[in-house]
């Protein structure tokens, strides 16, 4: 059970930092926390929504999934970035992944923002945007597997904090993630070079032999860097190629 995942408890854990989030809500169930925030055109910057059960979650590449009640953390935050930041949106999903790794012990990153523990996915992330030409709104959503059993995992290559033997309090995880998001998103907003440096240091894709699947194209090579826009650079037999999207498989990890 997600014990203590109540709004009052969460605000207590955040303390003075709760003021960063002017609209912070915890609900028992919803379809999608991302969709709920995007459907609120008057939602303020840093509006946050947490659901104890999400029935219509979405992932990258239009994948859909349903959560398990009280065993996963579904958390979304809406930001209203300045128009000048729209051209840097490609780096924001990486910043969000880094925030989750800051929060979850032993977690690693696989480009762009898959959060893994020992090669198994523990968190999914989706960043969505609206009204970029007029009044930009961006929602970042994170779904962390807290106490799922092996039988409850959505896919065989997933895991949960409980399965990894990581003791946790759901309210502490949520508060820690909100703190980490604030720090990393501010770095993104300010073009702080520390963000990309930290990402490169925590991303296990760099230096690994990889397969990239993009649409109907499959490319293999060595992942060598991440650009300032968040794209992955892969050294292939046809030269260095840049990928802003695609499914990455690690064929052999960096030594």
From TrEMBL:
One of its GO terms (molecular function) is ATP binding. One of its GO terms (cellular component) is cytoplasm. Its EC number is 6.3.4.15. The keyword ATP-binding applies. Keywords: ATP-binding, Biotin, Ligase, Nucleotide-binding. It comes from the Bacteria. This is biotin--[biotin carboxyl-carrier protein] ligase. The gene is birA.
């Amino acid at each position: 059970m997600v014990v203590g995942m109540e709004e009052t408890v969460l605000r207590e854990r955040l303390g003075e930092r709760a003021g960063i989030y002017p609209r912070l809500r915890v609900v028992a169930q919803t379809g999608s926390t991302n969709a709920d925030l995007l459907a609120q055109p008057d939602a303020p910057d840093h509006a946050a929504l947490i659901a104890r059960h999400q029935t219509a979650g979405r992932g990258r590449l239009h994948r859909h999934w349903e959560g398990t009640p009280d065993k996963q953390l579904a958390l979304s935050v809406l930001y209203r970035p300045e128009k000048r930041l729209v051209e840097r949106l490609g780096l924001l999903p990486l910043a969000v992944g880094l925030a989750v790794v800051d929060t979850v012990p032993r977690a690693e990153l696989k480009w762009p923002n898959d959060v893994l523990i020992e090669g198994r996915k523990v968190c999914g992330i989706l960043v969505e945007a609206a009204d970029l030409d007029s009044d930009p709104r961006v929602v970042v959503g994170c779904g962390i597997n807290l106490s799922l059993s092996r039988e409850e995992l959505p896919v065989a290559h997933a895991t949960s904090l409980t399965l990894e033997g990581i003791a946790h309090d759901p309210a502490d995880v949520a508060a820690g993630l909100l703190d980490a998001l604030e720090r990393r998103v501010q770095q993104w907003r300010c073009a702080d070079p520390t963000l990309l440096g930290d990402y490169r240091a925590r991303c296990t894709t760099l230096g690994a032999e990889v397969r990239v699947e993009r649409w109907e194209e499959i490319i293999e090579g060595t992942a060598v860097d991440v650009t300032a826009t968040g794209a992955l650079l892969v050294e292939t037999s046809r030269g260095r190629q840049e990928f802003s999207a695609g499914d990455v498989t690690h064929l052999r990890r960096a030594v």
